[in-house]
Fold each of these.
Amino acid sequence: MKAQNQNIDPKSKAAKGNGQAEPLLSEQLADSLHHSIDAMSQKASATEQGLRNSMAASSRYLKTNKQKLERNWAKSGARKYASEHPVMTAGVAFGLGVVITALLRKGR
């Protein structure tokens, strides 16, 4: 009986009884993990780009509305009243906070 001489790299292939090489389990696992990481990387990249676009759009929207709110506040009577009566304004704000908190706790 003639012995089979198999020159197979033990790091990459394992010998089968029929002389063919089959990938090691560790290589199969590594390939599977590489594919999974590549797929996750592509999804994460798309998600990141979407978030960046949303943040840029939100930033522009908020900047525009901030300017409008500042203009409206400068013209409002509430601003004038708040600057003339700061203690009363603080009291009203505190009272509203207490009422809102009480209403929210009742809702539970």
Amino acid sequence: MAVEFEKLVYLDPQKTGSTFVEEVLIDVLGHEPTLRQRHTPLKERDPHRLHCISVRDPWDQYLSLYRYGADRRGGVYLNLKAAGQASAYRDFGSWLDVVLDPAHAPEVAPNWGSTGIARFVGVQSFRYLRMALPRALERMKAMESVEDVREQHARLKAWDVVLRTETLLDDVVDMLDTHRDRLGITMGRDEIASRAASHAGANASKSKRVEMADEHRARIAEREWLLLEEFGYQA
């Protein structure tokens, strides 16, 4: 599932630079994916292949998702519109009132609601978990507490390498260079870096602190505790 190559599996949560990553992998590995089912959870982890996942600053994710919906685009916007919640987009705070509330989870993202995990994590952690864990949706339904989420994630996460959207170009190059023998890459680091930089997504690879009201930042941090714990994002 996800985006699979002969020797590598790319786990691609939504809005984490996945188009750029896939383009670079095709260029450097020299072939199209053997299977492309984007944003679709794994069934099982293949121990013979390298697994990577992309992640993003959760505050940046929320702002991006809000702005996308404010332009009347995207699945979350369409879901909220269908549920009569389009007025939430009048401002960022009003929108957060809806998307951070577990009671609205079925309206925001149906699987987030139906699995029951909205009681424990926000929608961005849900999107991450559904790609990080094999048979994720099935496993989520059995999670009964924050500790269940934490324990199962620590024990079952499928990825070997993390690619951060904030440093995406460098992280992709580092992964391909570090694992060149395992992946059958013959080109040197400089050529890997040059090819990666030639793709448009490289221009978005930059680290910055997202400006946001402290109240909104704190509310998001509370719901996205898993991303903060696992990847060191700071409130």
Amino acid sequence: MLSTTRFGGRSETMPFISRLPLDVARPRTRELLRNPQEMKNEVLGAIDSGGGKERFLWRVDVEPGNRLALFAVTERTRPEWGGLWEACGREEEAARLAVRDYEPMLDMLEAGQEYAFKLTASPTYSEPSPRGPGVEPGAEAGAEGEKRQRGTRRPIKSRGEQMNWLVRRSAGAGFRVGEVELPSGFLDEEPQKVPDVLLSGTEVKSFKKAALAKPGAMSTVTIRKVTYTGRLVVEDEKLVRQVLVCGLGSAKAYGAGLMTLARMSR
């Protein structure tokens, strides 16, 4: 099913957001959790009419009670999760399997709004290649060790630099990371503001995929992901909308880049 909506006589794609409770006791669930390439293929399989060319995002969240749920955002196609649900779904939570039109939430975005956010990302930088110039540390890249014309992608491992990566990227993504002021005298320093963000859930996964340069050969891909939870302020709603649908950072097909928002509790 392909859904569109119109603005000023122009047809626009309609994104969808999905939530699937996963049963970790099922063998197929454990297989997918071990291999991001396999999970990517399952998400692609659910996009019936996307033809493999549609942009999509996914991530696995740990929820209260150590339960797992798959979240996915598709750019224009309503996914059909029947096959994945049969193999991996947590039957007692069937009522919480949901596929929703993302448009109403995206339409509510306005500059100045404050949201709680969650982002699983793969912070990387590009190491200059001997053959040509590289880019500054913190620039967008992808899987660990992946080579591009501009250099070799490397993971950012330091917690401080991972936080700096998010702050740098936020400026071009239409939001400002919220800040909290440390009290006077904290560590014998003057009062200072720091990002109101918690880094957690560092995860490193290695898996095999077909090598593009050598037909029939396999290469090893390593993805390093970190989860950010915190507070942000919308500065450009159009850019934030783009991030929510298209992701932030690299390795988007492998469970990184999906950001979700929630209203702040009062």
Amino acid sequence: MKRIALLSLLVLNTALPAVADMLPGYDRFDLEADHRARPVAASIWYPAANPTYRAPVGDSLIFNPSYAFIGPAVAAGRHPLVLLSHGSGGSADTLGWLTGGLVAQGAIVLAVNHPGSTTGDSSPRRSADLGARSNDLSSALDMILADPAFAPFIDKDRIGVVGFSLGGSTALTLVGVRFDGEVQDTYCAAKPEAADCAFYHLGGVKFADYPGYESDARDNRITKAVILDPGFGYSAVPEAVKHALPGTMLINLGREHRFDAADVGPEGNNLANRLPEATYVEIAPANHFTFLGTCKTGAAQMLEDYGDDPICTDPEGADRAAVHSELIDAIASGLDL
């Protein structure tokens, strides 16, 4: 019995890296939120004080996993906190390349799986409720700031938000942008094939019928924001845009391969010049899907065989892992990490 325990300890010790090579810490929560009928799945990535055991996070048929230590103590000090909102049909755990990268910059990253718009749970009607998505993140922020295991390690003056695609629209509401459902309906009538219209038309969505689409969800605790390829920019309310949080960074993926609906540059909806003191970054070659995790061998063909979106296919010359590294640097800069 003692010999087995000793062997187990030796195996564990040889599997753990030195502190200098520490993996991020990772844990999960059930978020109880008044606006949701059921608990929301939340997760947190953070600088680890010590190793526990190494485990894959976000492993799937399509995406490669990231690795983390499960449930270690938090590294000493006060760390900036980043809220993360995934895109339509996505999930928090498959963005480990980003969360781990931001932890390496010293941040704690808090994410949720937004009900009604995650992998296998993505409904056009529920995805149109931006207010519910925004409240997911504000409620998660309430939770973590009251958690004795994490609150002492959070710098409450450095709370940021990062959002991609539908998550970018969600993050925009948290910094003060509101959207007009009637304007979005008019836009979609003219451009039914647009990326922020086609999926919703499949569900018969009229945005003006969804009060959550027009919610005022600003969270004044947030001091920095990085928004990547957001949808709905054409229906952003001008007066709300004018008074949104200054200094937001907006990132577009690709140039000739860019989604028109997500184009925040001067040839698109021009949010980059309309938001106060905004910074604008273009990363190319890339496309919208390059933001997602690196894909397993054969995943692109499998998606093609199923007639699914080409989420594993990047433009010629694009290196997804290299783009991820560039994105981590840009996002860290936009958050002042």
